[in-house]
Structure formats: C-alpha cells, structure tokens
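Bump. Still looking for Amidohydrolase structure tokens.
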Amino acid sequence: MNDRAAPRTQSEPRTVLLRGGDVHSPADPFATAMVVESGHVAWVGSEGAADSFASGVDETVDLEGALVTPAFTDAHVHTTATGLALTGLDLSGAGTLGDALALVRAHRSAHPGDRVLLGHGWDAARWPERRAPSRGELDEAAGGRPLYLTRVDVHSAVVTTALLDLVPGITDLAGFRQDAPLTGDAHHAVRAAAHAAVTPAQRTEAQRVARARAASLGIGTLHECAGPDISAEDDFTGLLRLADDEPGPRVHGYWAELISDAKGAARIRELGAVGAAGDLFVDGSLGSHTAWLSEPYADAPHTGTAHLDAADIAAHVTACTEAGLQAGFHAIGDAAIGAVVAGTRAAAEALGLARIRAARHRVEHAEMLTPETVAAFAELGLTASVQPAFDAAWGGTTGMYADRLGEERAGTLNPYAALLRAGVPLAFGSDSPVTPLDPWGTIRAAAFHRTPAHRISVRAGFTAHTRGGGRAVGRDDTGVLVPGAPADYAVWRTEELIVQAPDDRVSRWSTDPRSGTPGLPDLTPGAALPRCLRTVVGGRTVFVRPNE
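Sorry for the wait, here they are.
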C-alpha cells in the first residue's frame, strides 16, 4: 500500500483519496475507491470516477488491491485489565497446572520490584489436573509475595497468603473459601487490594497498550465496561480523558452502578459514562459456577449466585429511562436473563413500551436464552451484547459448558441465529481480557458456532461487529462506509472476497457476485485471517503497519 504526500500520523483530518482496492460499502457493492474529507466519508465509487477527485486531495493512497472496511467496534472491553494482561503475567497458554506455576516463578523473578504480582487467564478446565492451584502452591511459586491471579472469566481468582494479609476481614466475606478460588465479595475485596498497588503511571501505560493493540486489529471503537465491583473511578475517568487527549480508538464508557433515582443518574453522567450499564452483575459466570440457573449445575449441587432480582432491575431500568440513560446488565444464566426480562417488562408497564424500546437498554453476554426470553428481547428492544469467542473456547459437546450444564443445556447457549430471526439487535465484543481482542476471529466463531443451528452468516456477524456496536451505544451513523458517515475505517490485506453463507441451506444466489452483495474475506476455519494495514478514526490515522 503506497501513500503519496502522506505523513505516517495525522494531527488533523486530511482530505484523502483511497483507490485501487475494494471498499466494503452498501452505497456501491463494487466500489474500489473512497474519498474522506473533514473526518467523514465524502464519496464512495468506482476507479474511473476517482480520477475527478485526484487533483483536489491532500493525500492519495494506492490500496494495491487491499480491502477497506468500516473499523470494528468491540462492544465489551476492560481496557486497563487488557493492557495489564498484555504487559503482565498471561497464563492463557499454560497447558498444565505445573506450567502455570512455572510461569508464576519466572514472572516473580523478572519483577522483583512489583508490590503485587498480577496475572490472568488460568483455566483449570483445560488442564489434566482439572483443579486450580492451591494457596500453598502459589505461596511457594510467588516466593511469599502478594499474588493475584484471575481465572479466564475474571469472576474468580486465586491468591497468595501475603495478599490475603492485606485485606482485613477477608475470611468473613461471602465467596471466601480457605483453599479454593475466591468469588463474590471476597474476590472483589482482593481485586481492589491488588489493583491499589498499580500506580497511576502503570495504569495509564496499560490503557495505552490496550488501545494500541485494538488499533492494530482494525478496532476503531471500544465500549469500556467498568464499575465499582470491577475498577476504581479514577481508572475509568482517566481512561476517558486519555481517549479524548491521545489518538486511538474511541472509548464509550459504561459504569455499572445500580441507581434508583435522578440523583443516581446525575452521578453516572458526572463520571462521563453513557449509561449505567455493562457489567452490572445479575449473576456471575458458568466457569466459576456463579451464573444463576433455574436448575442446578450438572457438576455442582446448586444454581449459582443471584446479585439482583426483578424488582432491583425494574427500579434501575425505570430510573435510567426517565433520565435518558442506557441501562444494562451482565446476565449469563437462564434465571438471570429471566430476571432481566421480568424487571424490564415491569418498567415498560410503568413507563410505556415505546420509551423502553427507544432507550436501547442492553444485556451483556446473554448466553443461556430460551425461546421465550429471545422473544422478550425483541419485544423490549434489548440489545444482546455478546461474545462469540466464548463458544469457540468453551462450547461443543466436550467443552466447559457441557461439563457445567450437560450436553443438552450446553447446546442451547449463544443462539445467535434465533436472536437474528427474532429481530434482536446484536453487538459483538470480546470481554477482553477474558478472550483476546480479535474481530475477524470473533466473526468466524459466530459463523462456525460449535452448535450448527446457532450459526449466522459472515455478513451478519460483520454487521454485528460494526454497525451493531454503533447502534448499541446509540450511534446509528457509524459502522458503515457511506457519504456522511464518520471516517472510521481499516485497510486489510486479505485473499479473495466471497459472500459466505452460514450453511448450504442458503440460496446459491447469495454467494454469487452478481447478487450485488459486497464480499468479505473467507473466514473458513484454517484460512488465514485478514491482516490490518491501517486504522483510521475520524479521519486520523491511528495505526499503520510497519513496512507496508
């Protein structure tokens, strides 16, 4: 990809002509060129027509056959935690308990000055030992130092004795177990103690690293899901300031605090949040046995943990709607999702269905849906903010979901096709660092869902990861390259473009170029994923791949 008269970074939006590639746009399914002016798309069209713009632009980019798409939106991210995972101890590659402990020892030796050692990503369900590290094993591996290690789902953690000693009264908190992963209040308390050891400079650097990684993957917008049980207020407000002050992906912040009146809503706005939403926990996670189920787990004699009931949810949705804020909840288990539906419906009965639908409230994860709750999402206008990589990691007949729920219930999880058929808006994300930032891999996971009946087309998945993310934050003008839209786009090196159906029941015409449907990269498992060459946000270049 060649630039003429183009600096590598831009302080102000420039008028740019991109030509000689493929531009994914509903304005012209065969577009090969695009003009960007004043931070917005000004024109999309054919190569021949591009000649008339060539003399009036600041920069011409020869795409050399590359693909231009809207930049992705990751609709569920924990930015600081992502950066800390990228720069700290990552246990996601540990194949055994012994491997994990060895990584802890190496990290301890490499960071002699850290007040608290931080790590993420262990998953005992993938280890032959099938158990978490004991406190004694961690004490030895960490050399007696404070250590905080979150499970891959971030809903439980294992810690050392030295970290427990920093939290007075920890043994009296709900979720504390003497030699097992901590959950609930106990987990939140040790997390607060661990994160308090992170200096403001370390936190800011982690946020920069996370935004840079997102930009390098063609992600132009992040939905930060923060809250008092997840991170500190200064972490949240600092991230929003950083995103305003420095080039990189846009950040829309959600603060997960339960409110019941106008005073609470005003507090959410004072923080700079766009909604009292995100990880406002109705329940926990399946991996940690804390998702709230209507029937007991297959491998545990209980139904998980409920944090909010329908009355709490109704009061929150009502207060947010009256204040013009988005409400939203973390809900994974079928009982948790049922409570969200019941509470939102009660709010609709009080305020009117039209006001609830117009507010675009959202539900994070929404994994264990039933036909009834799918229909209710459509009725109430709830956006399903979902993470297809969860199914890729834990779905299937032999995955963690099947362990927790049994094959039959596990096969009902993440029914993306049913949600789309019902007209439920989908927004795709990663929940990073739970699963990595990886937009094309996310779309692949949805198109090749481990349960074939839940698969959707690559085109539908792409829409959920672009326009769907914009819609979920109330921005209908984003996620599509048409005149007037913000110039948030990415340039990709990829193979032949196709129109990929979710299975062979889709009519042949939909995969024929003559259908006029813009093509997308081949995401068949095993095929190489597109490589990002450039990411642009609001007309400003925020990433350029070196030597391209």
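The domain at 15-71+481-494+530-544 is CATH 2.30.40.10 (Urease, subunit C; domain 1).

Edit: fixed formatting.
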